[in-house]
Amino acid sequence: MINEFGYCSLDYGVAYSRDSGVITCRATNKYGTDHTSATLIVKDEKSLVEESQLPEGRRGLQRIEELERMAHEGALPAVAMDQKEKQKPEIVLVPEPARVLEGETARFRCRVTGYPLPKVNWYLNGQLIRKSKRFRLRYDGIYYLDIVDYVTSDDSASIMVKAINIAGETSSHAFLLVQDDEGEYVFYAGEKKTSGKLIVAG
Q1: First to last CA, the chain
Q2: Does one domain contain both 56 and 37?
Q3: Are residues 26 and 86 in the same domain?
Q4: Do 148 and 89 have their domain in common?
Q5: Where is pLDDT greater, at 179 or 98?
Q6: Same domain, 98 and 182
Q7: Is residue 201 assigned to a domain?
Q8: What is the pLDDT of residues 3-27, one digit of tens each?
Q9: Arithmetic mean of pLDDT, 127-139
Q10: 189 and 156 Cβ atoms separated by less than 8 Å
Q11: How far is residue 68's CA from residue 61's CA, in Å, rounded to a whole number?
């Protein structure tokens, strides 16, 4: 949970269908209490592996940190590396476009296979994204990019994820579309930013 400058938010790191329910926020001070509720509905995606890919036991945290480092650096222990056939990276769960309102958090995710373990990087308009207060990068078998800290329409951008190892490389693109208070989205037409209403056919 984040509580900064009078703004509170509850962020789910990973949400599954079993997490669906009513979320209640309650505020209390010496003058009384107030609360508001919202319904969380998580759509089940059978293509995702719901079982934890993380190790159990007291060395779990150390192992998680090691996994994240390996995921970022594309590193694997040298033992028996040559005994397994090398496979070029493949993005088996591609990042989807994110359409959000101003002030919301934008999330992108992907799942990558390949051997040796590919190095995975995210890019915003061609610029490498590094982990910071605004850009949160996580890995638990699936790679996550969260753009937080009050997203505005000026943040509309092209997002690219690239995976690379010694066998090859691959990439996938998605767009971040932020709706302003007039109901318009800012988006890219080639390399030029423009804005307009978004019409979804269906």
Answers
A1: 37
A2: no
A3: no
A4: yes
A5: 98
A6: yes
A7: no
A8: 555 667 777 666 777 777 888 888 8
A9: 91
A10: no
A11: 11
Three-class SS of 48-84: CCCCCCCCCCCCHHHHHHHHHHHHHHCCCCCCCHHHC
Domain coverage including residue 98 = 52-196
Scored b (16 or more CB within 10 A) or e, 27-61 reads eeeeeeeeeeeeeeeeeeeeeeeeeeeeeeeeeee
What's the total number of domains in the chain? Answer: 2
Nearest one of 200, 178, 175, 171 to 190, comparing CA atoms: 175
Whole-model pTM? 0.55
The CA distance from 121 to 162, in Å, is: 5
Q: Which residue has the tokens 């000026």?
A: 154
Q: Averaged over 87-99, what is the pLDDT?
A: 94
> Are 69 and 28 members of one domain?
no
CATH of the domain at 71: 2.60.40.10
pLDDT, mean of residues 80-106: 85
